[in-house]
Design goal:
The chain has 298 residues and is of the alpha/beta class. The chain has helices spanning 30-39, 55-63, 83-99, 131-149, 168-177, 189-195, 199-205, 220-228, 233-238, 253-261, 281-296, and strands spanning 7-11, 44-46, 68-71, 73-76, 104-109, 154-158, 184-188, 210-215, 217-218, 242-243, 266-270. Belongs to the IolE/MocC family.
């Protein structure tokens, strides 16, 4: 698969050190994180909270290990804060990623988000955007998309648990109301399956808009427990709802086959936020790398 295509395989630092819960992997250094990524056979990374923001320092550390930056998360607050605040923060983020050689910028709307709230039930309290919030989101994303294009970059929208764009219907609406030239989609297997969506349906329906992929697996027994016990997103993560590809319930072969047939080019990023004290990050990185090689040839 993917022969002759510009496809790269990276891994996110969130399995080593968690941005939302700094106590998870608090002792893990930036150097340990990127060294183990390279040791496991990956060639790229997204940006975590321990990564230096000095681009020369970061470039040197990564180049020593044969790594590149694929992208980095941007928290947008288009539905809850003035557009000007979002624009200024986005420009700084865009310029940093452009200097690092990234081609896409991960954007997720955090207005009303409960993903970082430890005690708020994930499914019962999921935010739902009003018509006005949808308008602010769509218009704001168009502005961010234009800003990204100034540097030859794209924004890829990250549908995410605990936010206003989580379900298939919400993803469909976002794609219908946004300009394909300005807004692309990040496809995340784990968030779709955890939400109860048909991840292959979403993949095939929006294939033409997908320009970044997160490979995340789900422990379905934990996902059921989250619903039954009204757990929050952070409680779900601490309980191990996510894992790396090949260790959960998702069969990734059809995912790779569909993307290959569609001519996908860009990054695949393994991502699974887990407690590193329970799920050793290096061990799980090796497991994921071997599984992906076996089923896709990458």
């Amino acid at each position: 698969m993917f022969e002759g295509k510009n496809v790269k395989l990276g891994i996110a630092p969130i399995g080593w050190t968690n941005d939302d819960m700094p106590e998870l992997g608090g002792e893990v250094t930036f150097e340990q994180c990127i060294s183990e990524m390279a040791l496991a056979g990956f060639t790229g990374s997204e940006v975590g909270n321990k990564y230096p923001r000095n681009t020369e320092v970061l470039k040197k550390a990564l180049s020593l290990r044969g790594l590149e930056i694929a992208s980095a998360w941007f928290s947008a607050f288009l539905t809850s804060r003035p557009l000007e605040e979002n624009v200024e923060a986005f420009k700084e983020h865009r310029d940093f990623l452009h200097e690092m050689g990234a081609k896409v910028i991960v954007v997720s709307e955090q207005g009303n988000s409960i993903q970082g709230k430890m005690e708020i039930p994930l499914f019962e309290k999921k935010p739902v955007f009003t018509e006005e919030e949808w308008r602010l989101l769509v218009d704001g994303l168009h502005v961010l998309g234009e800003l990204a294009s100034e540097k030859g970059m794209k924004i890829v929208y990250h549908h995410h648990m605990g936010t206003g764009v989580q379900t298939t219907a919400e993803i469909d609406r976002l794609m219908e109301e946004t300009d394909p030239e300005k807004v692309s989609l990040l496809y995340d297997t784990g968030h779709l399956v955890f939400s109860g969506e048909d991840h292959l349906h979403v993949l095939n329906k929006h294939m033409g808009r997908i320009h970044h992929v997160h490979l995340k697996d789900v422990r379905m027994e934990v996902a059921h427990k989250v619903r039954e016990e009204s757990m929050s997103f952070l409680q779900a993560v601490k309980s191990g709802v996510f894992t790396t590809p090949g260790d959960g319930c998702i069969d990734f072969k059809p995912v790779f086959e569909a993307l290959d047939a569609a001519g996908y080019e860009g990054w695949f990023v393994v991502e699974a936020e887990q407690d590193p004290a329970i799920a050793n990050p290096l061990e799980y990185a090796f497991k994921a790398r071997q599984y992906i090689r076996e089923i896709s040839g990458l």
